[in-house]
Amino acid sequence: MPRGMDLSRRSLLLAGAATMTMGRAWAATESKPVEMAFVLPLSGPWARDGLLEREGAEMAVDDVNKSGGIKALGGAKMKLIIADAGDTPEKAKDATQRVISQYPGLVAGAGCWLSSLTLAATEVSERAHLPWLTLSYADSITDRGFHYVFQTSPPGSTQARQTLPAVIAVAVAATGKKPATTMIITDNTAAPLSVVKPMVEGGLLKKAGVKLLAEEIFTPPLSDATPLAQKVRALRPDFLFQFTSNVPDDALMLETLTEMGLPRSVLPVVGNGAHIVTPELLKVAGKNIMDGVMTGVGNWPTKKAESLVERFKKRTGEPWMGQDSISAYGHVMIVKWALEKTKVANREKVNAAIHAMGTSTGPADYFPGKVLKFDANGRRSGAPLVIVQWQNGTPVTVGPPEFAVAKAIWPKKAG
Amino acid sequence: MSVGPLFLAFFQVLIAGLLVGAIYGLMCVGLGLIFGVMRVINFAQGDFLMLGMYFTFYVVSAFGVFSFLGPQAAPIAGALLAGPVLFAGGWILHRLLISRVTGTRAAAEREAGQAQLILTLGIALILENGALIVFGSTPTAVHTPLSWSAWMIPFFGGASSVLFVNKARAVACVVSVLIGAALYWFIGRTRLGKALRAAADNSEAALYMGIDVDRAHSVAFGIGTGITAIAGGLVATYYTFQPYVGFDFVIIMYAGVVLGGLGSILGAFWGGMTIGLVQQLATLVLPMQLQNAAIFVVFLLVVQLRPQGFFGRSAERV
Fold this sequence. Notes:
With about 425 residues, chain A is of the alpha/beta class. Chain A has helices at about 10-30, 45-65, 90-100, 115-125, 155-175, 190-200, 205, 225-235, 245-260, 280-285, 285-290, 305-315, 325-340, 345-355; strands at about 35-40, 80-85, 110, 130-135, 150, 180-185, 210-220, 240-245, 270, 295, 385-390, 395-400. The longest helix of chain A is centred in the N-terminal third of the chain and has 23 residues, at about 10-30.
């Protein structure tokens, strides 16, 4: 045997070990899960909304993995990384920072439900060049010239523009006349203020011929709603914009209005956001308090997602699937779609793919509107506002007409 | 604008302030008792309030223990039951943990003051996060028609001029005043109450007089915990809560106790009442956003003009 071919026992063992290690390394590369982070408020007053988002995200990841994972990556599984954004922008920023540093392989992130938290989290994700999907409403999220943030809900200013005509149309259909006066009660978090600003400072109310009797801004959480309800009682607007942003404040405000002789059968209440159509409100406030409350939401399941809603209800025991859960489901599906396109788990490429997106199938099934695409700022192009109303203890879609499953109710006695 | 609506708004907000203030007063009494007797700054007091809320919720809404009393009385019974249960919890907590850094066992140790601060902060964190694990993050409430119904009091100025008195808050206010009065009587008239006062005034002298100071401290901690838990149960009848709710109230409790005078039970009640009134009446002249800022402006004024608080003593007890 030639000298060069002389194999000692030691070199054979080394070669064998090296081969085994290489095999493992190869296998690990191929089957390495693709990580996506969700930073959500899982403690504090917004925790329920965070939980609903988590349920949607978990279901989406399970669905992706059960259907063979990311096919373009050899069937790589998706892995969800969940972090608690807490109840302050500082906590949200810290949680995002921690997740990004602990999981350097992240391909995308999502969260944080409340606009004030999302604004803080995206400051961090932008620096890390991590594509970030959010359902938060504040215009400022996509007004800062960031390149790695995607807002799937219509922003506050668009919501303000779409809410007013929708509310007026409902009132005219029910009473035959246009409501002439309104009052705004809002908390001072970013999302409600981004809806209020174009209405008041942008002159939308004036243009619509609706007189603003008063605007009351408070810092959440409310300790007592009597002073606010007293002002509503004194001014008696034709309808009230109640832009609270969490379940405890929603319940307290609506209960106090009812207690002071202003139930929904007398005073129509229009809110903003999905927190006011969460199942908890039925438990903490009750059907009689909630029925009639109308709200504009950035997302609500349409006919395209009927089977998903049924599976979600069965899986989670939730009585319905609302904005928070379906948006989170959709965000995972957007990332999956981008990974299938890019064929590589690279956050820069995923970001570029989402920017170039323009699809009416796949992830588009989980958002209202026909085509799912984003503009240069990451704002979803043509995202419509969905109007949902509590009727018989359940939130139902009442507008726009192409999504409506029931007719909106407006008290005849109101303006 | 005529004077009628202004008067109506004033009296409506005044009623709200009195109702809320009485409940704040009861919370402050619980904290004031613990501080007055033991000189313990208890950061976990807000979390005892939270435990009282969840106890009432589970007893009334989840298990329906008092369902035979009907939806109006059951939440009040549940809140009252939270008192003895949390009294026992507070007693045990004091015996096992707090007594190691307070009272006669810790009197000789110079660091005992810092240790009790860290200990109660640690207890607060454990209770908050434990509650998050056990109860979940979903906001909940004790469902009762009292929370959205009101007694209507006719007010001068026409048929539409009516003052609304929320039933849940009114009942909570009456219960708070009764419990506050009962505690005042207990501290002033009973043998155990006198022992608590003696232990508060001079624990060493009390010891020489045969008073079991450590036992007195355990009783004071238990009563302080139990009273705050009752206040929590009462608040739960009209307020939606989650495991971190204690933080929203603990600042108010401390402000009330300092305002009333550290160590004074009566002062703590009036301190809480003052905070309730200022919080609500401020909305008549200030934007709603400054509601809580107004509390601290008044707080700073009182501390500046009368540092010992409404009912505090100007000289340190010896």
